[in-house]
Amino acid sequence: MEMVRGKKNFTFLLIGLILFLSLLIVSQLLSQSEAIEEQSILVNYQTYESVDELTEVAHLVLEATVTGESKNILLSSDHGHTITEVVVNQVMKEDRNKVIEKGQRIEVAEQLLW
Q: What is the pLDDT of residues 31-55, one digit of tens each?
């Protein structure tokens, strides 16, 4: 009888220890993945006073609406870019090498400068 009770206690203790270690490992993995995914970056964007000023330096100028699909690509701690999907509303300056039309969905790369 004492031996059966001792085995039961040992079994409960072993199960409890396994559950505790499993929860500890899962919480560590979750905290590590959150730390990797969340980063704050201070960036500078070039701005222009008018569309005319922008068309002087750009190959393509368009007005677009962001679809909400966006992903950050970090190549290192100080270099990366964002890819954002947009729907073209209006083409203000066409690119000689590629035809872009109103209503077309395209991906825009936004380089992070810091």
A: 655 445 555 656 667 788 888 898 8
For residues 111 and 74, the answer to whether their CB atoms sit within 8 Å is: no
* Long-range contacts of residues 32-38, Cβ cutoff 8 Å, at least 24 apart: none
The partner residues of 19 in beta bridges, in order of sequence, read none
Would strands 105-111 and 79-93 be described as parallel, antiparallel, or unpaired?
A: antiparallel
Q: Which residues pair with 108 in a beta bridge?
A: 84
Instruction: Supply φ then ψ for residue 37, to 5 degrees.
Output: -75, -30
How far apart CA 69 and CA 38 sit, in angstroms, is: 17
For the beta sheet containing 61-76, the strands, ordered from the edge strand earlier in sequence to the opposite edge, are 61-76, 79-93, 105-111
Residue 10: predicted pLDDT = 76
Contact present, 114 and 88 (Cβ < 8 Å) = no
Question: Hey, what amino acid is at 15?
Answer: I
**What is the DSSP annotation of 95-107?**
BTTB---TT-EEE
Q: Burial-class residue 38 by CB neighbours within 10 Å (0-12, 13-18, 19+).
A: exposed
